[in-house]
Amino acid sequence: MAAAEQLIQQFKQTKTLPHIVTRLAQLINDEDSTLQDFEEVIRQDPALVARLLTLVNSSFFGMSRKVDSISRAVALLGMKNLHNIAVTDAIQGMINTEASSAGFSPEQLWAHSAAVGLCCKMIAERIFSINGDDAYLCGILHDIGLIVELEVARESLFSIIDRLEPGGPSLIELEQEELNTDHGEIGYLLAQEWQISQPLVEAIRDHHHDDRSLSPNSATGILQMAEYIVNQLGFAVKEGLSIPLSAELASHIQKNVEEYKVLAEDLPEELENTTNMYGN
Predict the structure, then answer these.
(1) pTM of the entire predicted model
(2) Is the model's pLDDT at 118 over the cut of 80?
(3) Residue 279: is its pLDDT beyond 60?
(4) With helix as H, strand as E and coil as C, how does 112-156 read?
(5) Residue 178 belongs to a domain with what CATH number?
(6) Count of structural domains within the chain
């Protein structure tokens, strides 16, 4: 992954993950951390404090009284949710919205990432009845490698996107040909540096890989199905692009088709609500 490491080093010269995000990740990975520890870190970022208080006082939480203390906001949102909000803000801030081409726009990449993150969370919670915070984080980060390429290998990325057509070489194949790496490898290495848990970094690395042994309720399985659904709904990185789905995952969706239909119908509205709530 030497080529991926080189691109990451170039990227880090201009873009860095805020210290507060890495500190929150450390606290999540520390079994002895407390809500007070999280509160002390969050207090260092007034903009994040304002975002959290706005969020907990939104209609989404339906609080009868206004929440004006950080400790109460932290308790309501939970540690992983706080980390995810900070990561979401940081990733959005890393995207160069002025870097676009005829076939690619940064706004479209962000919309795709946000939709996949939300869809991952919905699949985890609605289909598998598991907490969706990790799934959301995996989805919002799955294309971080494309953000790196946009920043440090822009013309190559534009060329790759231009050549990306239905029935032609895949995005991964074109990236390997042009850059000797791909956004999955780049995202894998970067997410490891950011102390994201191993199942999630492996899902980021493998989200375009066809693995017949993949379990639908694994992080990778959820991510691949979410990206498939999101693309079907028109939130692709490139307009008209479809993502293939392995026979195993397709069979799982078919067996639970009614649940997935409802999920797909609800996704656009949920995405709009989340976008309004987070201000993205």
Answers:
(1) 0.88
(2) yes
(3) no
(4) HHHHHHHHHHHHHHHHCCCCCHHHHHHHHHCCHHHHHHHHHCHHH
(5) 1.10.3210.10
(6) 1
